[in-house]
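Narrative summary of target 7.
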Amino acid sequence: MSEKRFYGSGLPGVNLEQLLGRLIVIEGADGSGRSTQIVKLTAWLESKGFAVASIGLKRSTLVSEDLDAAKQGNILGKRTMSLFYATDFADQLENNVIPALRAGFIVLADRYIYTLMARDMARGAESEWVASLYSMALVPDSVFYLKVSPRLLVERNFQKDMALDYWESGMDVGLGDNLFDSFLSYQKLIQTHFKDMQKQYGFQVINGNRSIGAIHNELRKKVGDLLGVK
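Modeled conformation, tokenized:
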């Protein structure tokens, strides 16, 4: 088992030697199939006898409702949004992730700090500031990034919701005159930031353009190798 560590100073009062579980992150844009893969991995891991917990963006009981409300008017400031999401993440880290790992659970993260960092940098935040903001984050045992072509993401989002999300299209960034053009430009920009972060943070890139079954088989093999199961 790899030794647990934080990216920076971390959370106070946490004994890393007591964190017996594993933290596995699935990253990717809306429409990349993250949530579907989390569900399938959960079922498979539980069939192997593992206890599984999950986290995701905007699930903190502390600020998730306020963050949703703030985003409704499409006027949320860039720095304010960054701090909102960082608070949401820190609350889940302290009250969900750490206790679950201490109890020996496998924690599956439906996105982690990397999406938040890429979003912030796409909106002009300095990489040093963003890294400092998330220095309290625990380093995952594995990070899998489901990379999907922007045009396929458009198709999948329309199939699911019949619309494109204002924020996931980066309309506040001013990359296009309409949701479609802005979405394509914004997702390409996000992928550029993920590529820049890949070497630093050790992502394993998964081809997300394939079928659900093909992606699941690859993830199951990689997670199985990590945990020593087949």
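The longest helix spans residues 78-102.
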